[in-house]
Amino acid sequence: DRKMEFPFDVRLAVGVRMQGIVCIDREGLLKLQHQRAAALYGFGSSYAPQQHTDDRQDHVRSVVDRLGEASARAQGLKVPITSYVKMLSTDTRMYCKVEANRALGFIKVGRKKLFIRDPLGNMREMEPLCVLDFYVHESCQRSGHGKALFDHMLREESHAPAKLAYDRPSPKLINFLARHYGLRQYTQQGNNFVVYHRYFHDAPLGNSTPPASRQARRLTASGDQRHYQGAAEQPQQPSAPRPSNPFSFDGSGAASAGNPSNLHHHSRCNRDTQTSFSPSPARHIPLTTTPPPLPPQPPAVSCDGHSRKAMSHSPSSRHLPT
Q: Where is this region: Disordered (predicted)?
């Protein structure tokens, strides 16, 4: 492709009325698929005719695939990094610069979980925004299109160049970043990503700064020891006795081993507790096993009207008289 030209208006295919930059992502591609299905099965009055929808989806697929293949050839890769199918299956964004029936270039970004070694040699787990693919057609390089693409991406993503990670950057991209953004120093990584030192030296990042709870624990462990010693030297106020359990061993009723004053204090607390919370005499119930005496039983009356003694429960009195 000498000029990356297409037999259709690329602006209409990607939804740009004028020469400019458009963002292609998974959400937009899925919407095109839904419109095509709606036009095919005849539901939804707001959708375009089927032929127009089919053509537009095919045109977008052609633009994405050809740009990805051209980028792979420029980098010497056997398999393209960018394709229509991969855009549907990953959460990435592709910023394309188009004019009339030409595609001038693109830059693709997305987040990746990485293990990065910082300038001090410490390994960090991060999830930065990464530049995954960057290509400008050979016929329009050194014309400001790459800089316009890169700056547009930075504005849309609200990122600085130093806060990005770069996947397998080519020598051209390394020179581009050094010339336009002053990025030069970086540590070589084992995963072929490049993260510049300014990523760590600039404003602190949320994924490289310890959480607030971790900072609080660290401050407590290695903070001002005088504060904690002063708090330990302050005399502790005696806690009020617990009415429900005056002999608890949680510190309120137990005496301290090395302080006689504490021993006297706790003993007095125990006496006061026992005196003030002892049961009143009116409600006192003696703990005895002797049952109370039974009321006197009336004499038993026989059938003939004569009274006789009640039979006892002894075994000798259980037999009947002959």
A: 205-322
* DSSP-based three-state secondary structure for 106: strand
Which fold, 10-201? Aminopeptidase (3.40.630)
Query: Would you call 72 helix, strand, or coil by DSSP?
Result: helix
C-alpha dist (Å) from residue 136 to 29, 113, 116:
22, 27, 28
Pick the closest to residue 169 from 152, 156, 181 (CA basis).
181
Residues 137-146: tens digit of each pLDDT:
998 888 899 9
> What is the tens place of the pLDDT at every residue in 140-199?
888 899 999 999 999 999 999 999 999 999 999 999 999 999 999 998 898 999 999 999
Dihedral of the CA atoms 177, 179, 181, 186 (nearest 10)? 50
Domain parsing of the chain, residue ranges: 10-201
Q: How many CB atoms lie within 10 A of CB 271?
A: 11
Q: What is the pTM of this model?
A: 0.60
